[in-house]
Amino acid sequence: MTRAEVLAKIRKCLALAASANEHEAAAALAKARELMDAHGVSESDVALAYVVEERVRRATAAQRPPQWEVNLIHVICGTFGVAPMLAGPEVVFAGTGAAPTVATYAFAMVRRILSGKRKAYIATELRRCKLATKRARADHYCRGFVRGIEIEMATLMSGPLQCPLGEQWLAEKYNGVTVRARAPAATRSSRIHNDFMTGFDAGSEVKLHQGLGGRPAPEPSLLEQGGAA
To answer: According to a count of CB atoms within 10 Å of the terminal CB, is the N or C end of the chain lower?
Structure first.
């Protein structure tokens, strides 16, 4: 059997180990342990087998994204319990259960809203600015927008979710690539605080939890469920 086939069998046994039938659960757990010992599979290997990834188009095409996009990625991760990685024009969210799917949907939704808000802000408030100033100030608007979303979500959460399994999975599969922001463009404008606060007010009006079915809980470890049985 290939390693993937072994892990699939172990997962199937662990699912049966959650059975209400004590004898069936014990037999399935024993079989899972037997397979793990026979093929040198650790509990960590089994846990990582439950990790999945989803990809979604990024908000910008730059190799190193602006700070506001990095902030948005981390807000999504803390809200839905996933781990991130940049992959060219896409961002990868890794986690268990439905979390990566919901995270990509939420990111795409915010990206679409923010793209429209940014264009409108540039057209109405920054149309007379030079191109470099226009971009810098629009970035401050976007940072404020993301901060507004973050504060709004914080009122619904006891704290940000972590996804160590997703982080480990990405590190092992992609060699530890991390999400880093590019340095912000320098600007002497005294209006950047106003740009940030205008964006903050707009972001505060976005209800990220609505339309997403709430905040998904991380999938419990079936290995732990089997051990409890």
So the answer is: N
8 A C-beta contact, residue 101 and residue 70? no
Q: Is residue 186's pLDDT more than 70?
A: no
Domain ranges for the chain, please list them: 3-47, 54-204
d(CA 40, CA 116): 52
Quote the mean pLDDT of the chain. Answer: 80
The whole-angstrom separation of Cα 106 and Cα 31 is 40
H/E stretch holding 84: strand 83-87
- Tens digits of residue pLDDT in 85-105: 988 899 999 998 889 999 999
As a whole number of angstroms, the distance between CA 145 and CA 162 comes to: 23
Is pLDDT at 69 greater than 90 in this prediction? yes
In this predicted structure, what is the pLDDT of residue 147?
A: 94
Alpha carbon 181 to chain centroid distance? Answer: 16
pLDDT at 155 over 80: no
Taking the C-alpha atoms of residue 24 and residue 18, their distance in angstroms, rounded to an integer, is: 9
Amino acid symbol at 86: L
- Strand order across the beta sheet in which 90-96 lies: 51-57, 90-96, 83-87
Which residues, in sequence order, are CB contacts of 131 under 8 Å at separation 6+? none
Distance CA 154, CA 44 (A): 31
- The residue whose two tokens read 């339309």 is 211
- Higher pLDDT, residue 190 or 149: 149
